[in-house]
Amino acid sequence: MRLVALGRLVPKAEGLLRTTLRSAVVSRAQELHRHRKRLDGFGKDAPRGDAKTLGACRELLKDEDWFARKTAVDTLKQVAGRGEENHLALLYKHLEDEDIFVREAAVDAVAEVAEPEDVVAVSKVSLRLADEDCFVRARAVVALGRLGHKGDARTLALLEDMFEDGFVPVRKRALEAVEALAPVSESLLNRLRVVAREDADRGVREAAKETLSRLG
């Protein structure tokens, strides 16, 4: 009798456990939805340098939800003062965020907040050229084209290496960034000729030809 009773209880217990777990998942999803809903319009009308909004951003950057962290990064991009080192330090940290969307946003934000030719910003963004995500790499290339010092050999070498990237938009953006920063030289023109002739993508080849026509 006891074995029969136990046999009846086990399925009931399993059913109760499944129901509890299902309820927990639904509850978590609802909580996350409400959390994100509260972020609608966050910092939208805040003036640049607004202390209250910037303080809220610092707290949001600690959030476990990637959407909240990205919202904070996007807001810092709009509200942080140009060249403000404390806010740049926060953004540098999230260049290495575990979430690709946060990293993408952080690269864009650094490009907006840092002063042109900021050595630290250029160094931090350069590390994202090796990011596992192709869109992060593409954004890093664009950011370096904006922030880099014209004629800087190290930055240009890194950008020229991106001519070999496996993602077409990265290679196209690299052409644009190199054009923005590089002094015209026969070495550069030869490298561009190789891209124009040998790149696997027609669009990249055409972009390289257009770059050559403007430079040469």
TrEMBL record:
Organism, as annotated: Symbiodinium necroappetens
Protein name: HEAT repeat domain-containing protein
Gene3D superfamilies reported for this sequence: Leucine-rich Repeat Variant (1.25.10.10)
A Pfam family hit: HEAT_2
Recorded GO MF terms: oxidoreductase activity
Domain of life: Eukaryota
Signal peptide extent: none
SUPFAM superfamilies, sorted: ARM repeat
